[in-house]
Design a protein that fits this description.
355 residues; alpha+beta; two-stranded antiparallel sheet; 14% strand; globular
């Protein structure tokens, strides 16, 4: 008989830093296009795993000296390499005990709704849209893109289904969502990635996190967001298995743009004279705007395209303002990360480029 202890022991032995288990009924009320019960209708349990992000990969961004290690080692390395290997091992153990394991890594798939904000329609990111256009100009078709999908049969939803990872982590009892919409755990604050296994094994659901609030509502994430993407007063509230999750209203697409190209004050990869000679104002389009739509952001990416050899270049300028602000405050003001390190992440004021 498969037990919680067997699953958690296997997950931690394989390399996960935390493991929690939830019941599938905790997804009740989720939009159909984001309800994982449609993926595996017979599933009875969801297993969530946390993979710690070493704080040191933020050091280069904190100092403004090295940007690639966070997206490669923490983001891509965990999502694409380390977590899938752990999922595979735990999934093998589950299936060796006679139950099915649907493993689900932190996905980069594009489904019938946006994995950014859940909206329907074109779900390609701005750089992917540019790449598709460039592929068309070169008459090649090796870039995988899904812009239109349809259901495989009546009553089903179109592929590929996207569910909200952070809410799923809450459903597994692993932590809570902070005001920044980042998922927080008691051990690592906002510094982790998550991945999941759905199984038809009926495991015992862990209680939802009900300890000391992990987010202190200090609003450091709001103050230090370079794009002013996060509201201080408006919020989103979602019920997960009886637990109310609340976070600040976020302009997801604008957040995406500042996260990847960082704006002129936070992007050291575009020369200052480029911004200064920006006659059409395309690069400054998002500066000072309260909101931004996908078309406006695409215009910025098109203006930046000539300065980067590939779309990967955009992802070098990871602002990470909310994450580093959260870590800094949790370390300094009695939060869950207080006393975890001998030296704080932040030792001075956040850097800003010379405009």
């Amino acid at each position: 008989m498969l037990t919680n202890e067997m699953v958690k022991e296997a997950a931690l032995a394989a390399g996960a830093d935390m493991c929690g288990i939830g019941s599938m009924d905790r997804f009740e009320g989720a939009p159909k296009e984001m309800d994982p019960r449609y993926i595996f209708p017979e599933a009875k349990s969801v297993i969530g795993m946390v993979f710690r992000i070493p704080r040191g990969v933020q050091r280069g961004i904190e100092e403004g000296t090295q940007f690639y290690q966070y997206p490669s080692m923490a983001y891509g390395g965990i999502n694409e390499i380390f977590a899938p290997a752990v999922l595979y091992q735990v999934g093998q153990m589950i299936e060796d005990n006679g139950y099915e394991a649907f493993i689900y890594r932190n996905t980069g798939a594009r489904g019938c709704v946006s994995d950014m904000d859940g909206s329907p329609g074109n779900t390609l990111s701005p750089e992917e849209q540019i790449e598709v256009m460039n592929q068309a100009k070169r008459k090649t078709n090796h870039h995988r893109s899904v812009q239109f999908t349809r259901a495989a049969r009546p009553g089903q939803i179109p592929p590929d289904l996207q569910f909200q990872f952070r809410l799923a982590a809450v459903a597994c009892g692993l932590g809570e969502i902070g005001w920044s919409k980042m998922f927080l755990t008691k051990d690592f604050g906002p510094m982790q990635r998550v991945a999941f296994i759905f199984t038809d094994a009926e495991l015992t659901a862990d209680p939802l996190y009900d300890g000391e609030p992990l987010c202190r509502r200090c609003m450091a994430c709001v103050r230090e967001c370079p794009g002013n993407c996060l509201s201080k007063t408006e919020s989103i509230r979602v019920n997960v298995g009886g637990k109310i999750c609340e976070w600040g209203k976020l302009d997801e697409w604008k957040c995406y743009a500042f996260y990847t190209h960082g704006g002129r004050k936070f992007n050291p990869f575009v020369p200052k004279e480029v911004w200064d000679k920006n006659e059409n104002g395309d690069l400054d389009l998002l500066e000072g705007k309260a909101t931004a739509n996908e078309k406006e952001i695409l215009k910025v990416y098109r203006a930046l395209e000539k300065y980067f050899p590939t779309w990967v270049g955009y992802n070098m300028a990871k602002c990470g303002g909310c994450i580093r602000a959260c870590v800094s405050m949790l370390e300094k003001k009695g939060g869950c990360m207080e006393g975890k390190f001998k030296e704080p992440l932040r030792k001075g004021k956040p850097w800003v480029m010379d405009r």
